[in-house]
TrEMBL record, chains A, B:
It comes from Gossypium darwinii (Darwin's cotton). One of its GO terms (cellular component) is cytosol. Residues 2-81 form the GST N-terminal domain. Signal peptide: none annotated. Its main location: cytoplasm. It catalyses: RX + glutathione = an S-substituted glutathione + a halide anion + H(+). Residues 86-218 form the GST C-terminal domain. The keyword Transferase applies. It is found in: Cytoplasm, Cytosol. The keyword DNA-binding does not apply. GO terms for biological process: glutathione metabolic process; toxin catabolic process. This is glutathione transferase.
Length: 223, 223
């Protein structure tokens, strides 16, 4: 019987964060795909506040919010640590994780906004990319924490993978690699980690899904 | 020479969170009041990303974002722990801290919004109060973590003190104690802790300040 279960959805970046953390730690788990248009009673019971994936269930107890889940995983299974050992470096890492977390709900709107609203979202994206380029990835670091992937890299997965997906859906370009050379190298480094590379959702499938979703949202707005 | 310095502003709930944590731990510190309309070069140097208070400087190194500062304080000075020792209980605490953190920027708009926009803010407040009442403070607990104040109580300081301030400024009532009896008792328990009671900003002074600020914002909007 699996002691670790993960309730997820194939297109959620937040779910992938947990999948990568579990795999980087080498923890076997049972994955349960949720239908987000018809959530299971178990998911609603486990996460009554937000009713969202991901939910990690460990020894029968639910943990939710991807960042909280990652902290829990890192504490329970200390191998391949996902945060620096030094308290100051850890505080810096936690700052960047919070920075990414705070931006995520806004920047995820890129594909389903238009006009001025979309310009405001693009502004948030550029602010994030600039902060990463000028303050976090300075000195040609391979990953945010140095030579090894850690929780900060995972927190910025929206930049590494989903930005391209949103750009394709929206039909516009936000990220110009020559303007953000450090971020550009980091994306390559991040996507070269075998566990990341082997566990990414299919871009074409997400783009097709998001295009349908965008159409539905725009139709319902205009009615 | 003080090894701990706190850059703050008298009306910021986020700054009070740090003040309380330092005092609960018994850490001496030097407090530097910032003029938010004319921020010091040192503040901008220490917090180049957000340019905001609070900033804690420990042994010359800056830490920012109140939640990150509190985690750092709790790790560096382990006396009077502000998080549960058990990893699962700690994950639950971190969930509620994130819940409060995510709501804070929205709910803080209560005093400076009107009409439909204010109704949306009120809705967020009520959702937060309901979640606290029905999921976090169940079983007549004195504090979120049980018998002692911890980081979750501090994270919800907006409810304990600033909601009343915002209500007075806006001239409306959001919190009806009989609808939220557990939250109501918790507010009393929280404000009875000597370090909280003795270190709260002057309500009348904040209300007067926020009323002026609201007027300025509304004037600049209508121009």
């Amino acid at each position: 019987m699996a002691v670790v279960k993960l309730f997820g959805a194939w297109l959620s970046p937040y779910v992938y964060k947990v999948i990568w953390a579990l795999k980087l730690k080498g923890i076997p788990y049972e994955y349960i795909e949720e239908d987000l248009s018809n959530k299971s009673p178990l998911l609603l019971q486990y996460n009554p506040i937000h009713k969202k994936v991901p939910v990690l269930v460990h020894d029968g107890k639910p943990i939710y919010e991807s960042t909280v889940i990652l902290r829990y995983i890192d504490e329970i299974w200390p191998q391949n640590p996902l945060l620096p050992a030094n308290p100051y470096d850890r505080a810096v890492a936690l700052f960047w994780i919070k920075f990414a977390d705070d931006k995520n709900p806004i920047i995820a709107k890129l594909y389903r906004t238009e006009g001025e609203e979309q310009q405001a979202v693009v502004k948030e994206w550029l602010e994030m990319l600039e902060a990463m380029e000028e303050h976090a990835l300075i000195g040609g670091k391979k990953f945010f924490g140095g030579d090894e992937i850690n929780m900060v890299d995972i927190a910025f997965c929206m930049v590494a993978h989903w930005l391209g997906v949103f750009e394709d859906t929206a039909g516009l370009k936000v990220f110009e690699p020559h303007k953000f050379p450090q971020v550009s190298s980091w994306i390559q480094n991040f996507k070269s980690v075998p566990i990341i590379k082997d566990n990414l959702p299919d871009t074409d499938k997400i783009v097709a899904y998001l295009k349908r979703r965008k159409e539905m949202l725009l139709t319902s707005k205009s009615n």
